[in-house]
Amino acid sequence: MRSLTGTVPLIRLMARRDRVRVPVWVLALAGVILGSAASLVPLYPDQAAIVQYVTLFDDNPALVAFAGPGHGFDDPNLGVILVNETQLLACVGIALMAIFLVNRHTRAEEDAERTELLRSGVVGRHAPTAAAVAVVGAAVILLSTLCGAGFVALGYGATGAVSFAAGLAGCGLTFVGLTAALAQLAGSSRATLGLATGVLGVAFAVRAVGDITGSRVRWLSPIGWAQGVRAYADERWWPVALCLVAAGLAVAAAFWLATRRNFGSGIVPQRPGAARAARWARSPLGLVIHLQRATIVAWMTGLALLGALYGSIAQDVDQLIEDNGALADVIAQLEGADPTDAFFATAVSMQALLAAGFALSAALRTRSEEAAGRVEPVLSGPVGRSRWACSHLAVAAIGTILIVAAGGVGLGASYAIVSDDAGQVLRLTGVALVTVPAVFVVAATAVALFGASPRLTPVAWVGLGLVVCVELFGELLRLPEWSRTISPLHHVPALPADGLDALPLLMLTAVAGGLAAVGLALFRLRDLQAG
Questions:
Q1: Positive or negative: CA dihedral 362, 291, 297, 428
Q2: How many CB atoms within 10 Å of residue 323?
């Protein structure tokens, strides 16, 4: 057991370091999940509305791919809709939390050479991994417990709530173990994130194929295991045990792999780059493009697929709200708006929120480069601070435009197929691009915070969380109008349901430019801060 020496003090250290980060993750995810659960109650007030939902869902493979197999549809209740509407989102969210937090406390610490300092004292080989698994595992269980208690408080059945929470915890713990193991395989923190999110993507795709075809392929996915609990539909508990066994085996594999690699490296060696950079990559802008291009392509692919899902169900909007007045009020809040156009306005707004996540992370790449000490070598040559920072901002802006456009193309192409109208591709791509100035404001806010002080950059993520809450739950919670103006997207014309007004877009662009200029000016004045 000497290899676990020092685990308890490391648990206390990690808990102290994440005393803000973990509560933000847990409360944000719980808020989104429980907010979605609360919104279902007025949308499906009676059995007729519930049966209508099931009838529409059963006939659409795209909905099955992006929601689940529809357990309990033979005898539907509101809990079945809850699972179908929120479980997949919850599983992906808790898996991402596990991936990012475990990577932060394992591979990222090793890359920053802090683990080496700890290991020089009385700390066993496996203590950092064990402590990370314990802390993140506790966060997963806390989130699952909050969700289960929240479902009961909202009026859902207790047994189904417990089984839902148990499946959610099982999925999260599985990805805790998988990320710990992948951190030993990968040669860097970035590679660990790439492998772990890739596994999550494969798990999602495998589950989708299994659900659409009705085959047992879904049991190759941890997400499929969580859905196999069948909350609110003849609950089964053994898939939870399957998740726990898989998590335990993954942690054991992480311990074993740690004894088979050199400290600071991975089982899978990193591929060496070219001896000389391409001509286009020899400038600061080219370097940033080289660093971000894979991320941009991945985001474009994801937004295009999401847009394709929205477009494939757009023709069913009229049928969905025909006998459901509450749902009609949510989708078409503008008086006299066509339901399908109002649905498109909501769809592009959801895509813009996701694109804002990319824009924020891309803009804050400056902070990670500064913290890692990679800025000084660049600025020691004939490169000024403004040129270096502007290169990151340019790539963030261009990437945002490409990602939003990809979402619009996916939306338009899918709807063009089902409506037999090729003109929808260009129309809906333009509708999506209208949200770009609002996304720029989110990213520019992060630039201003970074310029003032790197320690303020987490506030940008809090701000994005507020925007998401206002956009998703503002109508449900009946927030006052002044509070909704916090969100830049609130000022964007709700195309195509509303008419185009260029003035708000110009004002949002000016605000984004002003915030970015302030951030750059402050960055030129302050000292660089590593770590």
A1: positive
A2: 13
In whole angstroms, give the CA distance from residue 421 to residue 368. 45
Q: How far is CA 277 from CA 138, 270, 286, 377, in A?
A: 44, 17, 10, 16
User: What six digits make up the tokens of 233?
Assistant: 């539909």
Whole-number pLDDT of residue 396: 93
In whole angstroms, give the CA distance from residue 195 to residue 183.
Answer: 9
Q: Show the tokens assigned to 71.
A: 């357990």
Between vectors from CA 9 to CA 8 and to CA 15, what angle results, nearest 5°? 90
Helix (H, G, I), strand (E, B) or coil at 337: coil
- In sequence order, which residues have a C-beta less than 8 Å from that of residue 370 and are 6 or more positions away? 454, 528, 529, 530
Pair of tokens at residue 435: 């949200």
Domain range list for the chain: 1-267
pLDDT at res. 334 = 47
The low-confidence residues of the chain, meaning pLDDT below 70, are: 1, 56-63, 270-273, 315-339, 473-479, 497-498, 530-531
Instruction: Give the pLDDT score at 326.
Output: 46
Phi, psi of 493, deg, nearest 5: -55, 135
Q: What is the Cα–Cα distance from 104 to 65, expressed in whole angstroms?
A: 31
pTM attached to this predicted model: 0.80
Which of 60, 42, 39 is CA-nearest to residue 317? 60
**pLDDT tens-digit series, residues 66-123:** 777 888 888 888 888 898 888 888 999 999 999 999 999 998 888 877 877 887 788 8
Structure tokens at 227: 């859905």
The percent of the chain in helix, strand and coil, each rounded to the nearest 5, is 75, 0, 25
361: left (phi over 0), alpha (psi -120 to 50) or beta: alpha
Q: How far apart are CA 337 and CA 32, in angstroms?
A: 27
CA 317 to chain centre: 26
